[in-house]
Amino acid sequence: NAGVMQNPRHLVRRRGQEARLRCSPMKGHSHVYWYRQLPEEGLKFMVYLQKENIIDESGMPKERFSAEFPKEGPSILRIQQVVRGDSAAYFCASSQQGSDTTYNSPLHFGNGTRLTVT
Amino acid sequence: AQKVTQAQTEISVVEKEDVTLDCVYETRDTTYYLFWYKQPPSGELVFLIRRNSFDEQNEISGRYSWNFQKSTSSFNFTITASQVVDSAVYFCAQGAQKLVFGQGTRLTINP
Prior knowledge:
Chain A is mostly beta strands and 118 residues long. Chain A is built from no helices and 11 strands.
């Protein structure tokens, strides 16, 4: 059973370009979470999605960042007009259930995408 | 507000020593999970343990053990007879799906 798959593993973008990060959840998982890890820091929650729905985007920067999880295909985290401060590791996790009252599965993280903005 | 504090930024020990990583959390939730993750130099996040807030039993897995004390809101992690391969950054986290992470403890095991 494949784990959470993220690609690319490394992504280099120049300032002003767009970055698209992809995440395929574990088989059977319908909920996806994105976290960001700035250098020398812990992970910070960004957004929580289920298929075709954003459940919680309280950690997303107000501008330039968006996320989607379509009915078919991977979840995409899109960063438009990247700036140097966006350089970080972006981790995706998935779970079977997302209800706040039903804690059924641990969060399985992908290997992350390391974004470098030059 | 939820908060996780890992007061030890860096720890360095000699191989075979025991080492304990501290984790203190704050939450108003009555039901929650506590987690530990390992991040080796290669950068991935390795899941180590998830603990339900209802279960205060200590857990042992090989050289790893965890001590959950609800009364002090702590969830400490001990590595017995440490090895060089244990060198990594260790993160404590609290929550369910939306996790709050501590800042991490960088553990270096010297041969």
